[in-house]
Amino acid sequence: MKNLQQLHIHEQHFAFSGFRTIALLGLLVWFLGSPVVEGGVVEVFFTDYDVSYTLYTLNDGAHEYVHLDKVAQMFQLSFEIDQIDGRVVLQNNAKTASFFPGQSTVIADRRSHFLNVPPRLVDGTVMLPLEFIPEIIPLVYEGDIFWDPAKRLFQIGIQELEIYTLYASPYGEYTRIVVEMSEVATYKVTEKLPSRLLIELPYSQLALDKNTVEVNSQAVDYVKIINSFGSTQMTVKLGDDFERYRHLVIEDPPRLLIDVYNTVEMPVATQTPADETITEGIIETDLTAETTPGIAGTIPKTFMLQTVVIDPGHGGSDPGITRTTTQPALIEKDLVLQLSKMLMNSLQQRFGQIRVVLTRDGDSFVGVEDRTTVANHNLADVFLSVHVNNSPSSAVSGFEVYVMDYGSLELPTGFDSLQAQSQVLDYAQAPQIERSKRLARAILDAYQSRTNQAGRLKSAPLFSLKGATMPAVHIEIGYSSNGRDVNNMVQPGFQESLVAAITDGIAAFKKIEQGN
Amino acid sequence: MLRWIFIVVLTIGLLGGSWYLYTVQPLEQSVNVVLPSDEEVAVVVPLNPETIQKRDVTLFIGDPETGALIRRISDIDADLSGIDAMRETVKQLLAPGEDVRNYAIPEGTELLSVFLTSTGTVYLNVNRNLQDRHIGGMAAELATVTSLVNTLLFNFREIRQVQILVEGAEIETVAGHIDCRKPFSKMLLSQNS
Predict the structure, then answer these.
(1) Which chain A residue is nearest to residue B160, measuring alpha carbons?
(2) CA distance A197 to A185
(3) What three-state secondary structure class fits B92?
(4) Residue A407 and residue A31: Cα distance in Å, rounded?
């Protein structure tokens, strides 16, 4: 009996142990088999460009991963994946880093580097462990990378900018403000005219004897520098006689110069020493200011209409709007190309020696930014983008001319630094907006004269205009959603009137700009 | 004896099931799935529906007659706050009602997720119908972007910027005209609303 009892107790104990083991095994298998489900976010801030990214991350419960292509895009690296063996090579000029997904070894800088967590291949996408960014990227990217785990923030670029000296020297017609720094840094100027200029620099160590510098000249009241919210901000309080300003960075020794003028005309003896390299920073105009922003120190020159760039919208794989109910059918990419060529001929006949360039002269796809690049590279005096409009409503109709609207966009957080070289170009249209409006009104007036129909002037945050460094307008010739407009647009007579109107408008604009 | 048979059967079942889950189901989910996703919030039905507090929200929706945006006052539960309130507002914007359609938004556009950063940038993640089914044209595209941006900026002071994403990715434009690479920080032109 006792043996039986012992046996029974033993059986119960063994059974209990068995259940516990199975339960633990089950939990272990479930945990290992769990698919990746969580995601997170890290911020990446480029201090040199004052640009911030948000990177989505994958989390398998133990480690976080980011997309290889996103990382490459951010740091402007090229990468290749070998189709045969799957090897990934990241490259920046002569620097490379290569690895195999699934393996912890990365070859870079002529040696092996070991990651705690290997890169993975997930659904055909190469995912990098978060440690890849601070450990490997600095081997191919020229810039320091700092990881702040509390803020989940990668900070790239200058970390130790120091500002040594701040002083201001009033001269007769202008006051020069000088900021001496440890190295050349990008900066951003925000105009709060007519009272202040705000210059934002990467976060800096301030080693100034005197911070608020009282100037009390005609153009400048005082200057002060403060550190605020992760950046360094210099405030220039403008004097009552402020007229205009210019700003530039000298590389050797590194310093920022701001000349604030109390005269309208440029002084005669303004020369830049031959050994100075001038770099201009970004200008942001406060479009909510009540007064007109000051000009940025450019010498006014007589307007010459030598080059016009016409941009037929869409093209190639992007047909734009299509309407097959008309005869002939309306296909936006073909119609605007045809009109653009007609306009080119019209301008050449009207202006003789003028050069007219099309961003595309056939059925080819051209990227939106490439279109303004054509205008900028050709030093165009006028840039026109030609399109066909559309609306959910069939009642809306008519000819419209758009100019750029920056009011809804904020510089620079969220800016895609792949276009870093156009960081200035993206706001290149800002100083030209008033001229663009004059061009638009001239075209609209001419349109009304030619067709006896009123057009409309509008504005929008347009991709096609923002980078243009000359007067630029976006023309919508009519609405494809409106029957009357569609019938007009495909008629040769209307097209000729339209082309003549735009030519008249450009001619009128030229006269206005030349002061005739 | 029966007890042992039961243990053996259970073990086989556990191992077999785990093997099935491990080998048949994909180990990793598609990367496109792993983004901040809308979580289904359990709806608690109050005992007396008439006592539910509501909060007004202004929706900027497209008018099919004029093509412009009109303001439509709707309401959401006052209990909703932050990201939940934004999510609900956007859902109403995309589908204002049974007999009401927002003509500024392409048909089939659905909200996938809403994410708000500590710096006040809201990421509005919608499906690809926003682009694929867009009718095209400047005016229509401007109405689309204005509808989304203005609705969020108007109703939620904590939002500083609105960034539109399509299936988790930043986009250059919706239909080739309006620059959507950067977040929008101010309401778009009132000519459209």
Answers:
(1) A410
(2) 18
(3) helix
(4) 51
Report the number of distinct structural domains present in chain B: 1
* Residues B33-47, mean pLDDT to the nearest whole number: 46
Residues 6 or more apart whose CB falls under 8 angstroms from that of A361 comprise: A337, A341
Whether residue B55 is contained in a domain is answered as yes
| List of chain B residues whose C-beta atoms are within 8 Å of the C-beta of residue A152 | none
Residue span of the structural domain in which B99 resides: 49-170
In a domain, B178, yes or no: no
Query: How far apart, in whole angstroms, are the C-alpha atoms of residue A362 and residue A333?
Result: 10
Residues of chain A short of pLDDT 50, as ranges, are 1-2, 4, 7-11, 14, 31-37, 266-300, 411-423
The interface residues of chain B toward chain A in range 28-87, judged by CB-CB distance below 8 A, are 28-31, 34-36, 62-67
For B127-157, what is each residue's pLDDT tens digit?
A: 999 999 999 999 999 999 999 999 999 999 8
- Structure-block tokens of residue B187: 């309401």
**Which residue of chain B has the CA closest to A467?**
B179
Residues with Cβ within 8 Å of B149's Cβ and at least 6 positions away in sequence, in order, are A408, B162, B164, B184, B187, B188
Residue B149 in any domain: the answer is yes
pLDDT (tens digit per residue) in A48-102: 666 788 888 888 777 889 999 999 988 889 999 988 888 999 988 888 899 999 9
* Residue-level length of chain B: 193
Question: What pLDDT was estimated at residue A279?
Answer: 38
Task: Provide the residue count of chain A.
Answer: 516
- Residue B104 near chain A (CB below 8 Å): yes
Q: Are A122 and A58 in contact (CB under 8 A)?
A: yes
CA distance A15 to A181: 76
The pLDDT value given to residue B46: 47
State the DSSP code for B102: -
Which helix H or strand E contains A25, and what residues bound it? helix A2-33
Nearest CB to B18; choose among A33, A393, A463? A33
Instruction: Report residue A112 CA to chain centroid gap.
Output: 36
Closest Cβ opposite residue B138 in set A29, A387, A405? A387
pLDDT of residue A127: 92
Q: Does A414 contact B163 at a Cβ distance shorter than 8 Å?
A: yes
* Residue A318 in contact with partner chain B when CB distance is under 8 A: yes
Note whether A457 contacts B: Cβ–Cβ < 8 A: no
CA distance B90 to chain A (A): 20
Q: Which residues of B touch A35 (CB under 8 A)?
A: 25-29
- Determine, yes or no, domain membership for B162: yes
Round to whole Å and give the CA distance between A184 and A84. 45
Alpha carbon distance, N-terminus to C-terminus of chain B: 79
The verdict on pTM exceeding 0.90 is no
Mean pLDDT score of chain A: 79
- Residue A138 token pair: 């600095």
Give backbone dihedrals phi and psi of A98, rounded to 5 degrees, phi first: -130, 150
